[in-house]
Design goal:
The chain has 345 residues and is α+β, with helices and mostly antiparallel strands. Helices cover 34% and strands 23% of the residues. The protein has two domains: 141 residues, 60s Ribosomal Protein L30, Chain: A (2-Layer Sandwich); 169 residues, Alpha-Beta Complex (Phosphoribosyl-aminoimidazole Synthetase, Chain A, domain 2). The protein contains ten helices and 13 strands. The structure holds adenosine-5'-diphosphate (ADP) and magnesium ion (MG).
């Protein structure tokens, strides 16, 4: 497999930036000036919503199973997910990369192919960034900018005591996707003749390697004229995010175990790994779904939506955070969270 390898030094820093960014076009009316000057210019009359997320090799991703194109897509998507969680519309991204000399021009081009796919998918303009050498693997840090009017902005802090708790999509799949990838990597490392067995796990792989930000839901909520009272995206696991909404809003929550949306493949794979599927849904992380509260007056508008699940309700802060189990018990929710800081790297 003699693939062409062009050293980054052959192009130089400016040549590389030109190579990576020349095919990007800017489409947003708020982008006044994109890549190529000392700074970009964005002109907005609405509130600007700004967020950053950094992905570090060995901490947040493992290139032995993460294709660079997927990584590029994911780096943008996780930032767009944060913009979505503010009920804002994303418009621009800035991409900073640290590259070790292990990376060829071809590899970085793959990364940018994924970035471009995501920019197209979420209609955002790449307006700038920074390119540096790294001694410890790949670092990719993205800043996303979005906008929303005053009345559209949704914070974590607005949930009321009688609000309904909603979650989009399904939960736990990304975590199990990671477990499958880790297992197959171990198998491969102990015997490189073994081919990884990934058939049947496609959905889990996709959820882990190429998560989507739920901008579709943000547009639908606008169509339904629903402004959630509070919202957060699920990066660290449902339990942890329920705590964030509750503590920042000054309310407690009751979540019904039998209402948690869990895909069949997630159930089956959890069983295979001898993990409780509910635990995966509560603490798995990296689902990038939206968790939000609505006031009861919006119930009728949302109750039949195929991809929005009503999983519980807010309650007095003194009632705390409870899981109503399938067995009919009320147990305190444990927020283990999915903490990258605890992972070895
Ligand atoms: P300066 O030295 O003034 O910071 P640079 O040479 O770093 O400028 O960058 C030149 C232009 O290319 C700027 O518009 C910058 O935003 C953009 N840029 C640099 N690196 C990247 C990158 N990795 N992705 C996208 N744009 C980039
Ligand atoms: Mg610079």
């Amino acid at each position: 497999m003699a693939e062409k390898r062009t050293e980054i030094s052959e192009l130089g820093e400016f040549g590389l930036i030109e190579h990576l960014t020349s095919s990007f076009q800017t489409l947003q009316p708020s982008t006044v000036l994109g890549v190529g000057d000392d700074a970009a210019i964005v002109k907005q009359t609405d509130n600007q919503v700004i967020t950053s997320d950094m992905l570090i090799e060995g901490v947040h991703f493992d290139l032995s199973y993460m294709p660079l194109k997927h990584l590029g897509f994911k780096a943008i998507a996780v930032n767009i997910s944060d913009i979505a969680a503010m009920n804002a519309i994303p418009s621009q991204v800035v991409v900073n990369i640290g590259l070790s000399n292990r990376f060829s021009v071809e590899a970085v081009t793959e990364l940018y192919e994924g970035i471009r796919l995501a920019c197209d998918a979420y209609q955002v303009d790449l307006i700038g960034g920074d390119t540096n050498a790294s001694r410890s693997g790949l670092i990719i840090s993205v800043t996303a900018i979005g906008f929303a009017t005053e009345s559209e902005i949704v914070k974590r802090s607005g949930a009321g005591e009688s609000d309904i708790l909603c979650v989009t999509g399904d939960l736990g799949a990304s975590y199990l996707g990671l477990q499958v990838l880790e297992r197959e990597k171990q198998v491969y490392m102990s015997n490189p003749d073994m081919q990884p067995k990934l058939e049947g796990y496609d959905y889990l792989m996709q959820r882990q390697l190429r998560p989507e930000a739920r901008m579709d839901i943000i547009h639908e909520l606008r169509g339904l004229q629903i402004v959630p009272t509070s919202m957060i995206d699920i990066s660290d696991g449902l339990a942890s995010e329920v705590f964030h909404l509750g503590s920042q809003s000054g309310v407690g929550f009751r979540v019904y175990e039998d209402k948690l949306p869990i895909d069949k493949v997630t159930y089956d794979t959890a069983y295979e790994f001898k993990i409780d599927a509910t635990t995966c849904a509560l603490n798995g992380g990296e689902d990038y779904e939206l968790l939000f509260t609505i006031s009861q007056s919006d119930f009728e508008k949302i109750k039949d939506h195929a991809d929005i699940h009503l999983i519980g309700h807010a309650q007095k802060a003194s009632a705390g955070f409870e899981l109503a189990t399938k067995g009919g018990n009320l147990v305190p929710i444990q927020a283990q969270g999915w903490n990258h800081m605890k992972k070895d790297n």
